């Protein structure tokens, strides 16, 4: 069951910010928003996750709307190596001791151009 | 990725033969997963484990079995391989703080 909606593809110029949107209008109160990416032929790579507050790490920033029905992943200075498929996933966390099964949709193919 | 390894990385096998893929972790995580990835289908969960000898089916479990006799090892077995099981197989472990960590994948071709 598709719990998230993402655009199938996006383009970005190298050095510019890449803003990848995700809609998750049916998100539950205990569900987190996770972002992963997959570079061709490699395993998916964790980027960032959040519950309701905005988050930032060395890779990216995650902006979650106040109603939590959508979010945006921001790569502040995209490089050619950021070309990948980006997956937005919602996942429940039950007290931190058990984990939901990760359901991947089709993701967004981000192409970074020179 | 660090802490999780898959073997073999590549395998070609004949239809009808049994095949076992191995996933090994050094992180002592309770949860482990097997996914397959095919063009047009994204990643699909085959089986997962929530502890030693505790496993459950995912969305595409038909034709696959798993075993977990030790925390660090999660085995995926194709009892009688078919061409429809030609795919890239990914193992994953999960941790609340860092989500899921995936292995580098096993490319399986059934001829």
Shape of chain B: globular
Strand content of chain B: over 45%
**Rg value of chain A:** 14 Å
Question: Class by helix and strand content of chain A?
Answer: mainly beta
Secondary structure: number of strands of chain B: 11
Q: What is the rounded distance between the termini of chain A?
A: 37 Å
Shape of chain A: globular
Give the overall pLDDT of chain B as a whole number.
Answer: 92
Major sheet characteristics of chain A:
6 strands, mixed
The number of distinct helices of chain B, counting runs of at least 4 residues, comes to 0
Q: Low-confidence spans of chain A: pLDDT under 50, at least 5 residues?
A: 94-98
Radius of gyration of chain B: 13 Å
- So what's the oligomer here? heterodimer
**On the 0-100 scale, what is the average pLDDT of chain A?**
89
Flag low-confidence runs of chain B.
Answer: none
Helical amount of chain B: under 10%
List how many beta strands of chain A DSSP finds: 10
Describe this structure in words.
- The complex is a heterodimer of chains A (114) and B (111).
- Chain A is 0% helix and 49% strand.
- Chain A is built from no helices and 10 strands.
- In chain A, strands 1, 3, 4, 8, 9 and 10 form a 6-stranded mixed β-sheet that branches. Chain A has a 4-stranded antiparallel β-sheet with strand order 2-7-6-5, with no helix packed on it.
- In chain A, a hairpin with a 4-residue loop joins strand 5 and strand 6.
- The model of chain A is unreliable at 94-98 (pLDDT under 50).
- Chain B has strands spanning 4-7, 10-13, 19-25, 32-38, 42-51, 54-57, 64-70, 73-78, 87-95, 99-102, 106-110.
- In chain B, strands 2, 4, 5, 6, 9, 10 and 11 form a 7-stranded mixed β-sheet that branches.
- Classes of the chains: A mainly beta (114), B mainly beta (111).
- At the A-B interface, strand 4 and strand 9 of A face strand 5, strand 9 and strand 10 of B.
Could you outline the blueprint of secondary structure elements for this entry?
The complex is a heterodimer of chains A (about 110) and B (about 110).
Chain A: E1 9-13, E2 18-23, E3 31-38, E4 45-50, E5 55-56, E6 61-64, E7 70-75, E8 84-94, E9 98-99, E10 108-113
Chain B: E1 4-7, E2 10-13, E3 19-25, E4 32-38, E5 42-51, E6 54-57, E7 64-70, E8 73-78, E9 87-95, E10 99-102, E11 106-110
Parallel strand pairs in B: 2-11
Antiparallel strand pairs in B: 1-3, 3-8, 4-5, 4-9, 5-6, 7-8, 9-10, 9-11
